[in-house]
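Suppose a colleague, Dr. K., hands you the sequence of a protein chain of 746 amino acids and asks what its three-dimensional shape might be. Before reaching for any lab equipment, you can write down a predicted structure in token form. Begin with the sequence itself:
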Amino acid sequence: MKFLKKYYPFIFLGLLACILFYKILFFGQILYGTFDNFDYMTSLKYFLVHEISKGNFPLWNPYTDIGVPYLADMTIGTFSIFNIFYFLFSIPQAISFIAVVEIFLLSVFQYMYLHALKISKMGSIFGAVVLAYSGTIFPNIGAVDTLPSIVYIPLLFLFLHLLVTKKQIKYLFFLILFQTLQILAGHPRPTYYTILCISFFLLFFSSFSLKKRLMLFASYGVGFLALSAIQLAPLIEGIFYSTRPLSSISYASLGSLSPAHLLTFFFPTFFGSHAYGTWWGPQIELYGYLGIPAYFLLFIAVLKGKVINKAYYIISLFLTLFLAIGKISLLYILFYYFVPGWRQFRDPIDIMILFTFFVSILAACGFDFVLKTPIKINKTIQKVVLTFVIGLLFVEGLYVWSARQNFWIHTIQFMYTKFHIHQLSRLLVYDSHKLQIMFDGITWNVVIFLLLCTMTIGLFILFAKRKLFLARSLLLLTTISFIYFDSSVVMTTSKDVYAVSSPINFLKDVQNGEYRILSLPIDLHQNRNSLVIPDFFYKESRAKLSTLQANFNVTSGIYQARGFTTLTPGSFAAYIQENPKNIIDIDFSHVTQKQLNETSIKYIISYDKLSSFSAPLTLIAQKDASYYLYKNPLAYKRAYLLQNSSVPVTITTINTQKMQFELDSPILDNLIVANWYYPGWQAKVNGKDVAIKPYEGTFQMIGIPKGKSIVVLTYRSVPFIIGLWTTCISSVVGFILFFVLRRKSI
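The predicted structure, expressed as tokens, is then:
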């Protein structure tokens, strides 16, 4: 019993994770969907494990675009401590297990932080559940590049709190250490926003003198920058040569908080569910949903609650909200032009992660206020409850009455013809089944909203004097509502989703690196007038695999001219497109024959049969409803002589850090290598160093003498070496300083 009394918060949080992820933990299923896990992480984590298993550290990824610096892509989390899972399980299983572990750890870390703020155990559990299982955080199980960064947020604020309250320098070291781990964990956006919030607190809300604030801020910044230099140095170089400098305020504000997102704050599945095949609107599920009781408790906390640094949490809550709405906010515009690094990110809505964090703290504070403070029930509250009850009964009656096929389309047609509400004509393009599901789902969300509101306020009225029972009931009600809605985004399947045949068995010349394949974007021809079928995303996933979409070519050792990377080669994008606008993808829709040839694209794979294309192509293979494979007979090899392209160039070595070619040139010539002209590549011809020059602004060109030659290109990342030494030296220095200064006070 003592054990249960002491550790029941962690047991409760563990059981909650087991309930939501039972298919993964107990039935061997894996997460899947159209999120980063499937489209992005699976292949690149496979590449990481595969190369390290061979004894190679993957500095360069030769399989994507025309080669990209692997380590420069911070979102991959090359140095994340969670990578250990990828060496213990298959990659899909590891990604699924990591999501479970990280959600659990996030709830535990938030509990620890709230308890350190002197919030009760039950209030801390409530705040932990609100954060980890909220509609903003929980769906990130489908983006394991983002979730690892989120996990560290409460832990960082815990050590920030200990630093400020206990004024011991050892906590500064822990703050720097875990800030470094967050940087190394994965996606930079949550990390960047966390650093801004911590800096804001250190500079304006800590109780130190101005001089000490500045010293702490400088130590914090210099500390984590030095320790994470091994990741940041290649990243900075990669940003400079990528398409990221193309950013504009219009592009940077894409993915801002919209009215559609505000709907899901209160009606989580307003636009349906991907998992159940009822999705009909924007790709939004659960976003911003915090549980109805949490909003009541947030309101109470803002007015009456007491918690350390309450003013900071409230101000930060509103600041993050105003930044999330994008360029329509003056604050966002000021940040875009004056805050370093802000313009390099899009999707400002991601700062709502911190908004949710601050709301969970204040909601836990409100929970404690209710637990400890007498509540007076007046007639106004009783009237509010009565209003919710009447509304609930009416909407529930409407839901039951309308739950017959074609009710809604008949209603819309009646209102359109009798009352001439012409805006309704937009809805009449949808089939009757879709309209029925849409409005049934909306009505059901309203029913749940009113029910939760009624139950929350009813609990306050009925059990205002039985505080412990009221607290437990609020926690249980919130937990059940999260389980109900969160289960709609836990999309799982068996591992056979990856068992898809693709046309790679006979493409030896793209497996040995002589040529590349170009995979065109897929279109499953989903009719927007109808609902997506329940297994739409499963079928889409298999279609992506069969056509080598995104980075799936990496797992097969196929060289792909189009892939997904957060640091798209800037010069290559400019070479393919005259005015590239999308900074994370290259549009090949208007690629020319010359571009195909020079990029060594010998094959083009498409989900649909190509009726027209700018280059003469030959259909060489097809699989019904799966792919069409075309051949470009004019493609140049990966390496060819500029003036004598017919002279054979043999590739003897190609891997993540080295390429070697053999040739016999009849004259002085230039060897063109369809590899990205990127800093760090060095060339030797017959053992002598030669310069690498750009060809067409994006490929590599090396001068070749007459006669036989052996050309060796090696990749040596100077930023990585500098970052490695900086990280190693600062780690040693930091370790020594910690033991020397750990007992010192600030």
